Amino acid sequence: MIGKTASFLIASLIAAPILVILSSWRTPMDDVFLHLMSTGLSEVLFNTLWLVMGVAVGTTVLGVSLAWLTATLEFPGRAIFNWALVLPLAIPTYVLAFVNIALALPGIRSTGGIIFVMTMALYPYVYLLARNGFLTSGKRATEVAQSLGQTPISAFFKVALPMAQPMILSGLMLALMETLADFGAVSIFNYDTFTTTLYKAWFSMFSLNAAAKFSSFLVVLAFLLLWLEQRARQSKRYIPAEKQPRSAMRVPLNGAPRFLASAYCFTILFVAFIVPVMYLSIGAFTVLSEDLDSRYFGFLGRSLGLSAMAALLVVAGALLMSYTHRYHKIAFLVRLATVGYALPGTILAVAGIMITTSAGFLTGTLFAMMLGYLTRFMAVAHNPIESGMARITPHIDEAARSLGAGGLRMITKVQMPLLREGLIVGAILVFVDVMKEMPITLMTRPFGWDTLAVRIFEFTAEGDWERATLPAITLVLTGLLPVILLTRRLERCPS
Amino acid sequence: MRFIVALSILFFTVSPAFAEEITIYSARMEQLIKPVFDAYTKSSGVKIRFITDKEGPLLQRLIAEGANSPADIFMAVDAGMLWKAGDIGVLKPTPSPILSANIPAHLRDPKDRWFGLSVRARTIVYNTKKVKPEDLSSYETLGDSKWTKRLCLRTSKKVYNQSLVAMMMADLGMEQTEKVVSSWVKNLAVPVFSDDTQVMKAISDGICDVGIVNTYYYGRLMEKNPDYSLALFWPNQKDRGVHVNISGAGVTSHTKHAKAAITFLEWLSSSEAQNLFADVNLEYPVNPNVKPDAQVAKWGTFKQDTINMENAGKLQIDAVKLMDRALYK
Amino acid sequence: MPIIELSEVTKTYQGERPLRNASVPAVYDVSFQIEKGEVLALLGPSGSGKTTLLRLIAGFETPESGKIILDGRDVSVKGQVVPPEKRGIGMVFQDSSLFPHLTVRQNIAFGLYRYNKNEQERKVLEMIGLVGLTGFLDRYPHELSGGQQQRVALARALAPNPIVLLLDEPFSNLDPDMRSKMREEVHAILKRVSMTAILVTHDHEEAFTIADKVAVLNAGKIEQIDTPEMIYHLPKTYFVADFVGSADFIEGEVTADGKIYTEIGAFPNEIGRGGSRTAPNIVVMIRPDDIHLIPDPNGIAKIVSKQFRGSENLYKVLLPSGAIVHSSEHSLVDYPHGMNVRIALTATHTVVFSASSIKGRG
C-alpha cells in the first residue's frame, strides 16, 4: 500500500495553512483585534449567523423541493429542468451579486437581498445531492410507504426525506461553507460578516495577526457545522444505495399542479440563471467591440488550464486522503483539511505564500497557488470520493487479495474502477469552482497569468461593472459545459 | 486525459526567465498601466513584467516574500498603503533630484520612499436640479441639518474614505473630525454604497442630493451619460482646500534592479509620461508643469490641501477606529 | 501429510487491524490438522473467534504465536508472514463480494490472470458449469439473485485451484429454502472437485450437512474436534452438548453397581465418558431422540407443550422434580397437552458431565 508517511505528509501539507492560521493565537491580542471585538462585533456575529441561517433555510427549501419535484414527479419541461436547475453553479456569487445590485430591484440592498443572492447561487449544491439521495434510496422506500397507505406527499416527508437526509446535509454543508468564506458578494452588498471584518483588520488596519484570529473563528464555525452534520448523520443510520437504480416510475401530475410545478421550476431558473445571463450578455455585447481581442484566448486558456490542473491535483489529494483514512485513524486530519472551504481564499493564499517562501526554491512556481486551491477545495472533492470509497466494502478488498491481487493490482483493477464516478464528479466540481475563484488566483498567480476571473476583478475593482460583463459572461459560458457534463453523469449513474 | 497530464507538467515546470527587466506589483489596474509600460519598453528597451491585485494582498505578498521577493516596484492607488509599505520597510528611500523636482513635496514621502504619480480629488458631487453651488461650502457642512436625508456616501471600508477622514484628522484633530463624521452618518438618505458610481447614480435618481466621490469616477460616468444632472463642487476653498489623493509608487527594499526602477519612476514623473499615465483614468498629472486632459481641465481649478499625504497612512488605523465609533459603516 | 496444520495459534485483541473498524475476537492455543479433500466446519456462537481463525488462515490477521502451515509451507514465520495474495487460498464471504463493475465471466476469471486467454476461457466455462449457471456469463452481479451470486462467488474462488477454500458464513444472507439447497449443492461441488475447505458457521445443521469434521469453538478455544456424529452424540463438554442440537440435563447419581440413576430411569455408566467417576453427583444429557413417551395415566411425567415440526412433534415434558425434558415423536401420533406419560429410555449411550462443570453456566 502507499507509504503511510507519504500520505500523512501530504495530508498535513493540505492542512498546514489552517494550522498556520490557528497558530496566530500564540501571539497576544493586539489593539486592532481588541478594537474590532469591542465595536460592532455583536452586529457582525448576528449578520453572519443570519446569513448562514437564511442561506441554510433558503437552499434547503429550494434545493429539496426542486429535487423532489424533478426526481419523483412528471410535469411539462421536467426533463430539461433536471439538468437546467444546476446551471446557476456556473455563475460566481460575486457576479450574481453585482448583477442584482445593478438591476436595482427595490429592497435588494438589505439582509434579505444578500440572503436571496447567496441562496440563488448556492442552492444547486443541495439540489444535486438531494436529487441523488431521492433517486438512489428514496424510490423503493416511497413505494413501500405508498403501499402502506401514505399519499405521495406524506411518503415524501415520512420516508424519502429522512432517507436522503445525509446527502442533503452534505450539500448544505458545502453551501454554508461557501457562504462563510465569501467576500466578493458581501462586499458588494456592504454586508458585514466575519470575513469582511477579517479583511478590514488585515488591510485597513494592517494587522495580519488580528485577521488570522478572525479566520480561526471561521474555522471554529466550520468545525461546528461539520460536527452538526456528523451528529445528524449518526442519528439516522445511512442505508447504502440499492445496487440497482430503479427505472424512473414517475408520478404524473394532472391539472393545476402540473403547471404549478413547471412554473415554480421555471421561476427559479429564470431568477437564478436566465436573468443574470441575459444581463451579462447584453452588457457584454455593448463592450464587445472595444474589449474583445486576441488576449481573450489567453485568458480563457489560462482559466481552463489552471482549473484542469487544480482539478487533477485536488482529486488526487482527496483520493490520497481517503485512502489513508481507510486504513489509519486520521479522521481529525481529514476534517482539518476539508475545513479550508469555509475560509476566504486570501488568507489561505497568504499562508501558502508563507509556506512557499520558507522553502525558497518554490517561489515563482505554481506551488503556492496549487496549495491554496488544494486547501480551499478539498471539501468539494472529498465528498463524492469518500462516498465512493465507502461503497468498496472490506470484503471486496479481501476477495481481491484472496484471488491473488494485492497492492497495485487491487488498486487498478478493483478499487479505481469503482471509484471512477466519484473521481469524475469531484473533478468537475473542483474545475468549476477554480474557474470562478478569485482571491487565491489574484494573489498567487505567476506574472502575466491573467485568467477570466482576474479580468472580472480588474474591472469591478474600479467600479466598472459594465466592462466586467464581458469576462463574466465568458466565464459563465465556459463553466456551463462542465456543469452540464456533471448533471448528465449523475443522471446516468445516480450513486 | 494524457493531454491534461502533459499540460499540467508543462505548467508546473514553467518558470519564465527574463532578462533586463523590472518587476512591478501594481494595485493600479492593468488596462490603465499596460499602455504606459508598453510605451516605456518601446522607448527604453527595458521589459516590464507585472502583477495586479488589490494593494492589501500585494503588500501582504511582499511581506511574506521578504528578501526572496522579485518585485522592484510597488505601485498603489492610495497614499495610505504607500506610507504603510514605507513604514514597515517594504519600500526603501530612493532620493532623486528629478523626482523631487517633478513632484510637489506634499505628494511624496518626506523620506523618499514613495512618490505620487497622478492626483485625484475626493470632492463633493451634487444634483444640479436640486442643489445650487451657493448651498455648499465645505466637507464639514454636509453634516448640517439642512442636508438631513439628502446625503449619500460610499462605505468606510474603501481606503479612499479612510484617507479622507485621516487627512481631516490631521487638519482638524480627532474630536472635531469625529463630530463631523457622526453628523454625516445622521444625514444619510440610504445605507452606504459599495462604490462611487452607485452613489452618483443614486444622486441622479433623486434618492439623495449630495455625495462625496473621486473625480475620475465622475468623469467616467459623465462620459457614458452626459445627460446626468451632476456637477462637482470644490469645498473648503477658503481654508485648507480640497482633499486629494495619489496613485504612486516606490522602490522595494529587496530590489535587484534599483537603478532601473528609479529611472522608470523618474520617467513616469516626466512630461513625456505624465499624460499617458494620468489621462487614461481622467486623473490630474502630479507634475505641475503638465496640463491635465481637456475633459478634466473643464472641471476647473481648485485649491488643494497641501498637508503631506503621509498622514493618510499614519492616521489610517485611527481613522478606521473613528469611523467605527461614529457608526459609519 | 495434512494439507493444513495449525499449531498453538494464538491471537489476542491487540494487533494491527487491516481496516480501522474491524474488531478482533481472540483465539487461544488452537491446533488442528486437515487432510486434503477434507471439509472442516468451525462452529461456534458469535464472538467465539471462528471468523478470526479463518482470517488467520487466510492471512488477513497475523497470529501472535503459533504456526500455520499450508501445504507444507509455514506462512506465519515472524517477519516473513506470507500475505493473503500469495497463500493460494480461495474465499467466499457472507455477502458474495462480487466485483460490481465486472461481469460474471470477468469475476470468475479475475484470479486467472496468469493463465493465457484460452486456458482462462476453458476454466471459466468449467467453473460456471460446476455451479450450474451456464448462460449467465455476461450478466452483472446486480442482475443476479442472492443464491446465484453466492454460486458465482464460489466459482470465482475455485477457479484458480486454491489449496483450501475458506467460507465465512456463506449462506447467512439467503432465505431458509435457498440455504438448505445451497448447502447440499456446495457439499456436492466440494466433493466433486475434492477441494479442501473450511467453513465458518453458527448453525450446527449446516456444519453437519457439509463438513467431514467439526470443530466447536467457545471463547477462542476449541472445545472438541470430531466427526459430526461424535459431536452430536458424544459431546465432550457441556458447552458442546448445549450448543449443538437441543439438549436437556437432568441430575443423576452414580452407584456402585455401574449405573447412573435419574428420575426417569437408570443409565449404564460408560467408563471414561464425561464427569469424574468419583463424584457421585453428575448430570446426564438427554437429547429429544434419546427418550420415548408412552401414554400412561400413572406416568410420572406430564406433557406441557407440543411443537409441530413437520415430520415430528417436539413435546416438552415436565418431570416431578420440576426438570424439563424434550422428546421428539413421530407426528402421526398426537398427544394432548396435559397428558400423563411414562418415559422410556432409547439412548444407546450415556453422556454425563460433573455437576460442578456446569455451575456458573446459564
Walk me through what this model shows:
The complex is a heterotrimer of chains A (495), B (329) and C (362). Chain A has 495 residues and is mainly alpha-helical. Chain A is 78% helix and 1% strand. Chain A contains 20 helices and 2 strands. Chain A has helices spanning 4-22, 31-38, 41-72, 78-84, 93-103, 111-147, 152-181, 184-188, 194-204, 208-235, 256-291, 295-327, 331-338, 345-358, 367-390, 394-402, 407-436, 439-444, 452-460, 465-492; strands at 73-74, 251-252. In chain A, helix 12 packs across helix 15 (367-390). Chain A starts with a helix and ends with a helix. Residues 237-246 of chain A have low confidence and may be disordered. Chain B has helices at 2-13, 30-44, 55-65, 79-87, 97-102, 159-172, 174-186, 196-205, 215-224, 258-269, 271-279, 294-297, 310-314, 316-325, and strands at 21-26, 47-52, 73-76, 115-127, 151-152, 210-214, 230-233, 243-251, 284-285. Chain B is α/β, with parallel strands linked by helices. Chain B has 2 domains: 19-119 and 245-294, Periplasmic binding protein-like II (D-Maltodextrin-Binding Protein, domain 2, 3-Layer(aba) Sandwich); 120-243 and 314-325, Periplasmic binding protein-like II (D-Maltodextrin-Binding Protein, domain 2, 3-Layer(aba) Sandwich). Mean pLDDT of chain B is 91; it is low at 13-18. Chain B contains 14 helices and 9 strands. The termini of chain B are far apart. Chain C has 2 domains: 4-233, P-loop containing nucleotide triphosphate hydrolases (Rossmann fold, 3-Layer(aba) Sandwich), CATH 3.40.50; 247-358, Nucleic acid-binding proteins (OB fold (Dihydrolipoamide Acetyltransferase, E2P)). Chain C contains 8 helices and 20 strands. In chain C, the strands form 4 sheets. A 6-stranded mixed beta sheet of chain C has the order 6-7-8-3-9-10, sandwiched between helices. The two termini of chain C are 41 Å apart. Chains in contact: A-B, A-C. Chains A and B meet through helix 2, helix 9, helix 12, helix 14 and helix 18 of A and helix 1, strand 2, helix 3, helix 8 and helix 9 of B.
